[in-house]
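Narrative summary of target 7.
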Amino acid sequence: MNVVPVFRIDLLEGEADLEGVLEVERESFTSPWTREMYAWELQNRAVCHIYIVRTPECPVAGFCAFWLVFDEIHINNIALRPQYRGFGYGTALMHHVLAEATDHHPAQVTVWHEDVIVGTWTTTKLSGALPASRVAELLGRVTALHDAVRHAREEANCAPARDVKIGKLILDYVLA
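Modeled conformation, tokenized:
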């Protein structure tokens, strides 16, 4: 069970908070919202709300930007700085946002997904389905065969040619 350290959740309170939100955006998203996008959103404070997660060591550890329209909440963005993820701040922020809606109107939540990290994936790329020892053994056989063919060709250039079907013998040797 995770224990959530001391924090509080407040409404966005000015330029310093907005700068913190922009920093969290840059740390969290590949295409972060810009200052202009937030300025446009914040023109209508009756609809647009931004809550900030504050900790003793960080004035803006995360945020949730949402619209409250009639009796529905539309969450635009929710993010935490990477070092504050996995401690329950995001869940607490979501509960706060949804509880806040009930003060004015009942919250209408259609879908709420919470990603919980339970493990990691490791990708291992292999060269074929053979163990390395078998690959080394086959490579040694092919190298020996190549050297033998080169030597045989040198000798064959000096001798009359015979019609010999040797393909099966070669494959049996290589794949033995």
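The chain has two domains: 8-104, 132-174.
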